[in-house]
Specification:
Length: about 160
């Protein structure tokens, strides 16, 4: 998929771990870090989520919010949040419709090197104007990635 940078971010309306619906329009005037990940409580996804958790103070000072998106259900999200004390909302996209619109679903290599269709770990930063200001697709290193996003937000 081609880069979304500079384009209007695709709209979304997903159920959140906080019991509310979340739409892109709810965040007008804020910067949104929308990160897509394969599965709750797996090694890479946990490292990435904990990296965002550990930098949340700086993210908040940048007038930004973090939202994680996977196909997992709300119960799974809430267990993941509770286990790792995640201070941000996780959104459920069970049909991967939003993931597809952001290029976070498609062909990728699995751990065995085979091509499979599924979630692609990626992130977009959506500016207060609703445009994608930065996209990482795919994320190269789940553990280091939150620091990359933080550096971008601090520019």
């Amino acid at each position: 998929m081609s880069s979304l940078e500079g384009q209007n971010a695709p709209a979304f309306n997903l159920d959140g771990s906080d019991g509310k619906k979340h739409a892109l329009g709810d965040y007008k005037g804020k910067t949104v870090v929308l990160y897509f990940y394969p599965k709750d409580d797996t090694p890479g996804c946990t490292k990435e989520a904990c990296g965002f958790r550990d930098s949340i103070g700086t993210v908040t000072k940048s007038n930004a919010v973090v939202l994680g998106v996977s196909r997992d259900g709300i119960d799974s999200h809430n267990q993941f949040i509770s286990k790792y004390k995640l201070p941000f909302t996780l959104l459920s996209d069970p049909q991967a419709q939003v993931m597809r619109s952001y290029g976070a679903w498609g062909e990728r290599k699995n751990a065995e090197g085979r091509t499979v269709e599924g979630p692609i770990r990626s992130t977009v930063v959506i500016g207060p104007d609703g445009k994608v200001s930065r996209q990482w697709n795919p994320v190269q290193n789940a553990e280091e990635h939150p620091r990359e996003v933080l550096q971008f937000l601090q520019k």
